[in-house]
Amino acid sequence: MDNWQAVVALTLMAGMAMPLGAWAAWKERIDIPWLESELRHGIIAFGGGALLSAVALVLVPESLPDLSLGGAAAWFLAGGTAFMALDVMLARSGSSASQLAAMLADFVPEALALGAAFAYGSNGGMLLAGLMALQNLPEGFNAYHELRQSTAYSSRRLVGMFFTMAWLGPLAGLGGFWWLSDYPSVVAAIMLFAAGGILYSVFQDLAPQARLERHWGPPLGAVLGFSLGIVGHMLIH
Known about the structure:
- There is one protein chain.
- The protein has helices spanning 3-27, 33-63, 69-93, 98-119, 124-150, 155-165, 168-179, 184-210, 219-236.
- The protein is mainly α.
- The protein starts with a helix and ends with a helix.
């Protein structure tokens, strides 16, 4: 398989985790309220752990060698600030798609970085693809619930929307592969921008939702999500 075909396959695989997560949320039927609540909070925590592992194990370490100290800090802070501005804008507009917007805002730059990583032979591309899939699955699950409760869209239509959005991954991945591979500093900036935004999202949206009073199981989902990132990192490196 050529590198560009690998980029398409891996970004599509990662993207399809979004409709898969939405489909799982659609079909979820648990008649025990406390168990259903723990499951949903555990899934949210798992997504947060996977996101943190993407930041700690791929996005930050892969990008630092190509940027100066000031540039790295600036792009990381810019990502967090941009995600905060998006959050504020959505809150003021009364939009019910904050989880969906956050999911796409980190998926697209990650796909760009993955495509460029494959073009210049980085080992981080495979790991990033796996972590993207791990994070998109719970994010799709959560975004489905958010939209289903606040819009009139049918479940079938929502899953179809998520399926369509999954194709943004190959488009962004090929863009990174063909146009950004000669500019490693640009790719590094995109990765750090995404990392800053992801870190903001984890502590603004996911971590507060993962907590349940008098329940201690869901946070282990975050540990599990991060541990899978560690396993992938060790296997590849």
